[in-house]
């Protein structure tokens, strides 16, 4: 071994990587606990998907690289777009990465909300872009539409928004999105609709009219397939051509692509789960009101609750009782985000919460 290697000299990474804070979500050791920490489906996925996974794959099928023709056709039909308006992605995360890779160069400007889904900033920083973040109203967490319109400039290359937003929970109207699109004529605008099924608000039909609009959806939330990593990105065909150019031809694995095809066939599962979560969210709000705990109105399957100086005690106390929730106090002092599951699960959460606070 040469002297250089023995001395442990490393090739330095790109400056953008050196400057980044690592992002390490607490994904380990979650099995067998009540997982109200990642806004996942808390009951699983459609039984049709599990049956399919148990029966659907033979050893003969796995050695070949995935083919997407059937998934593209069926998913495009389901979402009401043409196949040329759809990019199949390895979860929303790959959609974000693809959008950044395709449209954002080093030092170009990207506009985000703060706090929001961490992967927007993550990929923009990896790309070495200039990240600008607008704060929600500190008291109400309302979306500052006018401020956003003022901030968008000719130098803004990319705007990424979650609708509804995670972790704050609030959504923006389609009208607000149109106003952003009309202002951001020199930028691409990504609307991340990971929680669409709970809010019912979508910008998807607007892709026909706005060539700079991208909309993403995921199979990780209501469909309960976060472990399989499947999502979709929708935009006009000319953009799809650019996005696909920069995408690995095999980024979605064959099992994920096939499972998504089965999942969309069980809309009863989706409807039942959304109905259950909305009822459970109301039950949780009533319980929190009784405990005099403030929370922010949410259009998603999660609630951001204000515990003040008790946030750490609550997170740790609940963990000791087998319930995981997510501390967001680094972003909003005192705030803890709780995923909404079923009414039964949320009753258990409220009971445990009362004990922790007693
Ligand atoms: C707004 C938002 N977008 C995307 C995701 C992740 O989606 P995926 O699992 O499809 O990468 C999350 C997960 O928490 C999210 O909150």
Shape: globular
Per the CATH scheme, the topology name of the largest domain is Aspartate Aminotransferase, domain 2
Please tell me how large the radius of gyration is: 21 Å
Coarse structural class = alpha/beta
Low-confidence stretches: none
**CATH superfamily label of the largest domain:** Type I PLP-dependent aspartate aminotransferase-like (Major domain)
What are the distinct ligands in this entry?
A: pyridoxal-5'-phosphate
Tell me roughly what share of residues is in helical segments. 25-40%
What is the top-level CATH class of the largest domain?
A: Alpha Beta
Number of helices: 14
User: How many distinct folded domains?
Assistant: 2
Quick take:
This protein is of the alpha/beta class.
Description:
By secondary structure, the chain is of the alpha/beta class. The chain folds into two domains: 12-45 and 267-357, Aspartate Aminotransferase, domain 1; 48-263, Type I PLP-dependent aspartate aminotransferase-like (Major domain) (Aspartate Aminotransferase, domain 2, 3-Layer(aba) Sandwich), CATH 3.40.640.10. 39% of the residues lie in helices and 16% in strands. It has 14 helices and 13 strands. It has helices at residues 3-6, 15-19, 47-55, 69-79, 91-103, 118-126, 145-151, 174-183, 196-199, 237-245, 254-263, 267-290, 311-320, 343-357; strands at 34-35, 86-89, 109-114, 130-135, 156-162, 188-192, 213-218, 231-234, 295-296, 302-306, 323-324, 326-327, 335-339. The protein has a seven-stranded mixed sheet, sandwiched between helices. The protein has a four-stranded antiparallel sheet with strand order 9-10-13-12, covered by helices on one side. Helix 4 runs parallel beside helix 11 (254-263) and helix 13 (311-320) packs across helix 14. The termini are far apart. The chain binds pyridoxal-5'-phosphate. Pyridoxal-5'-phosphate is lined by residues 39, 91-93, 117, 162, 166, 192, 194, 218, 220, 226, 231.
